[in-house]
Structures are given as C-alpha cells and as structure tokens.
C-alpha cells in the first residue's frame, strides 16, 4: 500500500469519525427533517451499519457551515468562525462559570 493511499484512507476514516460525532449529536431525526435523505439512512449511518457518503458529508457541511472546516480537516479557526462541537462545548462551559 502506498503512502498516499494510506494517508487518504486514514484521512477519510477521520472525516467519517467526525461526521458520525456530529450526526449523533444532532440526531438522525433532525437530519432527516432537513431533507435530502430519509431517517432510516441517517439512523443506519449513525449506528455504523452503513458508510456515510460524500453527499451526506456535504449535507452536514451545508447545515453546519461553522463546522465544515473541522468536519473535513479536523482543524478549527475560531477567529474566522470555524469551530468544532468540542470547541463550542468548552466555550459554553467557560461562559457559564461564575466569577466567584
């Protein structure tokens, strides 16, 4: 197996992992209500029964443009509005803490 192929495969596995994280966070029902794919498809993707397609990754990126960079690359640029669910959660926790 060539290095380029190995990198691409690992990269796609990482995209799939981040997509599953997002799908599980928002739920298959909500995604099916957005249109484009039915509930059973999103549920099967979420449950790991079938692989996510580039079309579904595109739906996620279009629905959550602030997560698109993270979804595709794993990077965030909060100063440019590109966040991750973890970043948002950490930021939410920081703003909910009282100063004493």
Keyphrases for this structure?
single chain; 100 residues; mainly alpha; 6 helices; globular
Query: What string, H for helix and E for strand, traces the elements in order?
Result: HHHHHH
Cα-based radius of gyration, to the nearest Å: 15 Å
Could you give the count of β-strands? Answer: 0
Q: What is the rounded distance between the termini?
A: 57 Å
Question: Biggest sheet, in brief?
Answer: none
Number of helices: 6
Approximately how much helix is present in the residues?
Answer: 55-70%
Q: What is the typical, i.e. mean, pLDDT?
A: 87
Low-pLDDT stretches are none
Overall 3D shape: globular
- Going by helix content, strand content and strand pairing, the class is mainly alpha
Strand content bin = under 5%
How would you describe the overall organization of this protein?
The chain is mainly α. The protein has six helices and no strands. It has helices at residues 3-26, 28-33, 39-46, 54-63, 68-73, 85-96.
Write the topology of this structure.
Layout: H1 3-26, H2 28-33, H3 39-46, H4 54-63, H5 68-73, H6 85-96
What's this model, at a glance?
By secondary structure, this protein is mainly alpha-helical.
